[in-house]
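$ fold --in a.seq
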Amino acid sequence: MPSTFFDVAYAGDSTNNCHPASSCTSSDSSALMYDVYYPGYSYDSLKLPCVILLHAGGFSECSTLQLPEIQKICEEFALRGFIVFNVEYRRGSIKDPIGNYESVQAALAQYRAYQDARGAIRSIIKRQRKHNLFTQDHYQIDTTQIFVGGMSAGAVAALNAAWYTDSMVYAIFPIPAGGTTFIQDALGPINSDFYYGEPAIDYKKGIIGAVSMWGGFRVPFSYVTVNNAAGFFANAHRTAFIAFHGKKDETIPYDTIVKPQKIFLSPPTHYSSYTQSTCVSAAYTVDGDLTTAKLLVGSGYNMYSIWNSLNDTLLKELYTDCQMRHGLDKDCNTCNFHSDFGTGLTTIETVGLYMVQRAATFFQAVMNNKKIADIGPPSRFTECENTRAKCSGPPNPHCQNSDQCSTD
């Protein structure tokens, strides 16, 4: 790690008081790690496709790659023949004191996560290239068949790594009028040299698909509305895309009906959440005021619509649950489990397994070079189980490509 990088932990961050005191560390390699899941056989001489996943947690320092949900998802992908990487990333978000604005700490936390998602992917690729040096690795990956994704904040970081050019990343971190310090001045370039896999590695050409589990993306507000943001993605690296999202999501809103998708940054009157000079190479200030939105946040539904508007031939699928908020319902014995995507399943584990099954099947089609022309129009499953696979029975014509939500 030839370059210096900063990590931070806040006492009482955006989730709970998980640290007794705030702290700042420099170049601590324990923050840059991942767990690997692979099939229970030795594949030393057989390269397998890989899935690189990032965990949820709202970019909060209290979250971790040891969350049970992401670990179970990784296990299920590995059982289906993928090498799976559960990536840790630096975070450290705290909320604006009012709550209606995004703090400078939140912006810095997201940028750190974006750096680490890219760095982890590069390191995974380089480690495969140098496989002969790592005799303890009883697996190999096919660096031309890489899928990325994650849950919530993890999906945001993974999609950013997969799709955004460097200039696109910098565009979503505006500075105040007359300001001179960009976020890359505070935390280093988006492709910083913090990792085993150096910045020169062109990792994007190996990424052929992405999975978003209630994740999203950001565009500058100058693009007016999320559904007209195709121009922002004109130069993006485009991949096949499968998404799972809830219509009642208020964290990453599905559309503007439940909650506006505008993002307002902390204004100067909220000084502690407007600018930061610690744990950075240069003081960084967000471009906030009380009345002007600076960014738009889009959902899986919005990205599905954008990819369609670009007339892309790549495969894309969207699964919408009309009752689901941000993430799956909690398991319980006395309440109704609604976030089932129309399957009738009743637990986090079984719905998570369904999501992996659908994503793995989707990835298989992508690896077989299937395009929209091969399988028909892009598919939307709104509060309805995808039964298109032959082993699941005949498809239900009332469910596929439906914009209607059931009322159960």
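$ fold --in b.seq
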Amino acid sequence: MKFMRILCVLAVALLVAGSVYAETQSVKVSGDLTMRAIGRADYDYRGSISEPDTTRTNTGSEAAYTWLMSTAEVEVDADLTDNVQTVIRLVNQRDWNVSDKSISSNTTLAQNGRGGYTNNPDEFQVAVELAYVTLKDFIYAPLTVTIGRQNLWFGKGFIVGANQQDPTGALRATEYTAINSFDAVKAVLDYDPWTITGIYSNINTNAIPSNDDVNLWGVNVGYKFNAYKAEAEGYWFFKKDNSIEKWTQTSNTNNDIHTLGLRGSVDPIEWVTLAGEGAVQFGNYVGTRDQLEGRTRQAYALDFSGEVRYFTDKHAWKPKVGFEYILYSGNGPESNPREASGIYHGWDMMYRGKFDSAIREYVGRFYSSYDYPVRNNYFYSNADASFQNQNQFIFSGSVQPMDSLLLKANYNLFFTQDRYLCDNSANPYGQKTGGFIGQELDLQANWDYTEDVSFGILGAFFVPGEVYTNADKTASDIVGTVSVSF
């Protein structure tokens, strides 16, 4: 009887598999695992960690602490017909076994019988990272349409590249999130060598019907030349942002931003690559919900880089060197943003996916310093935010001692374009002349143990400069990584 039940189960499985196969041409399952050990110290440059989450065991008062995190992803790709493909990618990302401590009561028993501590209920949740369908030759041959949750990346990711999210709130270091996708519709017209791409993405919608959504629209036109590996792109992205509460304004009551830009790269000689990108922004600016007057926005950003590979084919270690300069326009100090008026020149980072340093470039997004703390009800919370009012110089290099080992380093220098306004208990609203923000050294080693398994180590060190009057510590981030793909 038991043997008959097994045969029946196998028969049903074969029927189901046969029906699935009849509806799809092929199904591919893949995925990856990434485990990280992170040691972090002095992120406020004063001997304590500054982080938004103060409910966990490490409350932010420690000068240094370590923890482990992991990311597990599984992807299913299905070709339904020659012109229809679907992708679903699920992810669980979490810090290992984080417990929340109840301050007001120690009567709650956790599963281990320990009173006052409870496990994070979101730690093992699974999120949808990708879920989209691609329709090739839609309506007519050059058109491809992708609908659903997908990755969007244009050029070097300077304007649109990553929508960094941690929907379950399970990560201390959100910059290492695997969820960078957008809920979007993308249409691509491929007229080789021309490519025209249009997108619409819903960034945020209130659960209760209200005119406070954030949406992204864009058009990107690219051209590839048949010489010198040259390429060029022009783009327009429009972020329609009604998310700021408006209490007192009667005009310009939104943060709508139009971004227009050009990007290009060329190899003037075989072992040199030069690239450049420039963009301008215009629209409106609302800095705080009780701002009295509406303000117009005029901002700009530049990114120029070069890479030299002259010795790459001449030496066994394949050395490369590079240089890059990045500028984000900024606005002068405003002691009372509620009463500020006039044109606002601060750059909006949009959905940048390109980050060249491990510490400084996340200030104002995920972390804050002691001198420039988080300010409630401000659209750009930190006065020293890394995505505006900044000049950045990057010197980079890499060598490959063996085929499986890559060593990389970059040295970053940061300067203000305009002054900062200091805001802390020691020096409230004290105006500080702009100048040297700081310097950062990032060192990396990556070892491919096999084709599927790799190990990595990152050491990042940021030394604050003269714009910080209460800084005497070097921020550091040490990250060890093990990655497996299948």
